[in-house]
Design goal:
Elements: H1 3-6, H2 21-31, H3 37-41, E1 48-49, E2 54-57, E3 63-66, H4 69-85, H5 98-102, H6 111-118, H7 125-139, H8 143-150, H9 154-164
Antiparallel strand pairs: 1-2, 2-3
Helix pairs in contact: 2-4, 7-9, 8-9
Keywords: DNA recombination
Protein name: Integrase
Length: about 170
């Protein structure tokens, strides 16, 4: 076997640095689709439509996320794992933990569970979400695109556009 055949590239992706299927799904939802920690925690099983590759995020105005292939695969894998581990749970949330499946109140996973996923990455979910939206704004100067992809308000989209493209900020004459 040659030296080149033995070489494995370094692991750098945030997805490579988390261990569980649920953690991988959460990281993908934040890093790819720009969901907030709260939005990820409160997703219901019924919000996920794998057959059509969609996820409904409930906000003031409902937002539809169209899943990329990676997130679709992670969501399908998580659903199988969730059912394998807790086939009898009635907890309606997509993300569950050993504690929430045993709790009669059927709560979503805690903020601490989500924070624990991101702590080893040295990131917060909100910072990763902001970085993702800013990265998309760098690739497009179209606020409508940001509004559609991330379900953000026009004012928020413009802030990201101005941060990514400061030269586009209009200057008022005095």
């Amino acid at each position: 076997m040659t030296q080149a055949a033995k070489y494995k590239p370094p692991r750098w992706s945030a997805l490579d640095r988390v261990n569980t299927l649920m953690a991988k799904l959460v990281v993908a939802l934040v890093a790819i689709h720009g969901l907030s920690r709260r939005e990820a925690r409160h997703l219901l099983l019924t919000d996920l439509d794998l057959a059509h590759g969609r996820l409904t995020v409930r906000r003031e105005l409902k937002h539809t996320v169209y899943l990329d292939e990676l997130t679709h695969t992670l969501a399908a894998d998580w659903l199988r794992e969730r059912h394998r581990c807790w086939p009898q749970t009635t907890n309606p949330y997509l993300l569950v933990s050993q504690q929430t499946v045993a709790d009669d109140r059927l709560p979503p996973v805690s903020t601490m569970v989500i924070n624990d996923i991101f702590r080893p990455l040295g990131l917060s979910p909100s910072k990763l979400r902001q970085d993702r939206i800013l990265d998309e704004a760098r690739h497009t100067a179209d606020p409508v695109h940001l509004m559609r992809v991330f379900g953000i308000a026009a004012e928020t989209a413009m802030k990201y556009i101005y941060d990514a493209h400061p030269e586009r900020r209009s200057v008022l004459w005095r």
